[in-house]
Design brief:
This protein is an alpha+beta fold and 498 residues long. The protein has helices at residues 18-43, 50-74, 114-119, 143-154, 159-162, 167-171, 173-176, 184-193, 196-220, 229-237, 241-267, 307-312, 339-350, 365-385, 387-392, 394-414, 478-496, and strands at 76-80, 85-90, 96-101, 107-112, 122-127, 136-141, 178-182, 270-274, 278-283, 288-294, 298-305, 314-321, 332-338, 358-360, 416-419, 423-428, 433-439, 445-449, 459-466, 469-477. The strands form 4 sheets. A 7-stranded antiparallel beta sheet has the order 6-5-4-10-9-8-7. Strands 13-12-11-17-16-15-14 form a 7-stranded antiparallel beta sheet. β1 and β2 form a beta hairpin. α8 runs antiparallel to α11 (241-267), α9 packs across α11 (241-267) and α14 packs antiparallel against α16 (394-414). It is globular, with a radius of gyration of 28 Å.
């Protein structure tokens, strides 16, 4: 196998077209940092000496060209076969060396951002457990180099696992490959029904930010007309309530359209290819990405689905591998997947689709605790700070109480711990319902706890610790939790002795 990858054992540079790419990236970084001054130049160009601007631009371009060439020649990568490390040399003035043990490599992702397509080159990112950012990025590789390096770092790394697979299975692997495509219609359904509240608030935040930046720009340009929030607020309040509701709904509609378009662009042509040991995800319209999910490394399968998506029979599924929690950006996920396709992937990983007949629900006292936390305490605090303001806006306080109580009751109703002999599933959420399923044998440990005031009511909490994060549920029957703890510890210990 080493003969096929000899080039990786000698220090080598990126593709030569990477020089142009790095130069464009550096220009983009400079423009992104100085865009305000660029606009100010065009606004006040009559007050600025053009020759000085031209000289400054030429000097900046020369500096960028020289730094780009140095950056390119100082960037080298290779595999240290003796120490089983992937090594990166980089830096212009302050040079650095990055060494990553092959055994610590979690993911190797290949992508082709839009600008890379013009040069027919690819970007390779290497990820290790315990880091939310990519450890190493190689920005300019030929497709063959990127694929070969990815295969070497991942496939050979799992040679021990591969040894458990027979030669006959490997010989038939190509015939056994299965493909799943997430259709444009499924992506569109997901884009319309997911993250619309986040899109709404993001759009409002963008409008506020744009207003602030425009105001600052007008001040720097010394324009007579300067916007202020009081003026805008007074103009808005002149509209009737139905008009304001219409504006809010319009913004939400625009947010939904933006989210749908973003989903289509990001996940376009989503293709899942299944091999004996892994899944390969490939997607993207302008920025093509490729990631691998190793079946044996999947610790948790997290699914999110709201009521509308349930009627449309689609959901959003994340595969959490070792060292990857669900809040990280680069978690392997599939949007708009149908129930049949999801079951196919789950069965391929666990050789069964978990079914649960047993479950635990939290005690009703959790509602009392949440009422105190989200209703009683905030109102009491508001009364102490400004009683007069509270009395003037008592109707808003009533609306808040009703809304908060509704959300508390819905959350309590959905909170459930399902279990069987092999799997545990936690259900939670209000509108977007989350299901996190994991194998008992793959748990790192399980902890139960009980506060002294919970002893009389026989309540406690349980925490499941996996290599992909911690999952906790509170206000459960403590006697049943003790039995579950003993069973989980038994399964964990017996799995270690296999």
């Amino acid at each position: 196998m080493a003969d096929n990858h000899n080039s990786f054992f000698q220090p080598q540079r990126q593709s030569k077209t990477g020089i142009v790419l790095l130069f464009l990236y550096n220009i983009g970084t400079v423009i992104k940092s100085l865009w305000v001054f660029v606009i100010l130049f065009f606004v006040n160009k009559d007050r600025v000496n053009s020759w000085l601007v031209i000289a400054a631009i030429i000097a900046a371009l020369l500096i960028l060209i020289i730094s780009t060439i140095i950056q390119y020649y100082h960037f080298k990568y290779f595999i240290d076969e003796e120490n089983e490390e992937f090594v990166i040399h980089e830096g212009i003035i302050n040079k650095s060396v990055i060494k990553i043990k092959r055994e610590n490599i979690q993911e190797v992702n290949i992508s082709q951002p839009f600008i890379h397509r013009f040069f027919n080159i690819y970007k390779l990112e290497i990820d290790t457990p315990g880091s939310s950012d990519k450890e190493v990025k190689i920005s300019a590789l030929t497709k063959q180099n990127a694929i070969d390096l990815k295969k070497y770092l991942l496939t050979e790394l799992h040679s021990e696992e591969s040894s458990n697979v027979t030669e006959e299975q490997f010989a038939n692997e190509k015939n056994k490959k299965s493909h799943i495509r997430i259709s444009v219609w499924s992506l569109l359904k997901y884009g319309i029904t997911a993250n619309y509240l986040q899109s709404f608030f993001a759009l409002v935040s963008l409008m506020v930010y744009g207003f602030s930046e425009l105001n600052n720009l007008l001040k720097k340009a010394k324009f007579d007309t300067v916007l202020d929030y009081d003026t805008v607020e007074s103009q808005i309040l002149r509209f009737s309530v139905p008009m304001l509701v219409f504006v809010v709904l319009l913004i939400m509609f625009i947010g939904i359209l933006i989210n749908a378009a973003r989903t289509l662009i990001k996940y376009y042509n989503f293709k899942i290819t299944e091999n004996i040991q892994s899944f390969s995800f490939e997607f993207g319209l302008f920025n093509t990405k490729n990631s691998i999910v190793t079946k044996s490394k999947v610790q948790v399968i997290a699914e999110t689905q709201n009521w509308i998506q349930k009627q449309l029979k689609i959901s959003y599924v994340k595969f959490l591998q070792i060292g990857k929690n669900e809040n990280e950006k680069n978690v392997s996920s599939v949007p708009g997947i149908s129930m049949t396709e999801k079951q196919q992937l789950v069965f391929s990983i666990w050789n069964e689709n978990p079914l649960f007949n047993n479950y635990l629900k939290p005690n009703f006292r959790l509602i009392i605790v949440n009422n105190f936390q989200w209703i009683i305490f905030p109102i009491f605090l508001f009364l102490i700070i400004n009683k007069g303001l509270f009395l003037n806006y008592w109707l808003l306080a009533v609306i808040y109480v009703v809304l908060a109580e509704t959300l508390i009751l819905i959350s309590f109703r959905n909170l459930t711990l399902f279990f069987n002999e092999r799997f545990i599933r936690l259900k939670s959420g209000i509108w977007d319902i989350d299901y996190r399923t994991f194998e008992v044998e793959k748990l790192q440990t399980v902890k139960i706890s009980q506060y002294f005031w919970q002893r009389k009511t026989n309540l406690g909490s349980i925490t499941f610790i996996t290599s992909a994060g911690r999952f906790k549920m509170v206000a459960l029957d403590f006697f049943k939790l003790q039995k579950m703890l003993n069973y989980c510890i038994y399964k964990i210990e017996t799995s270690k002795n296999k």
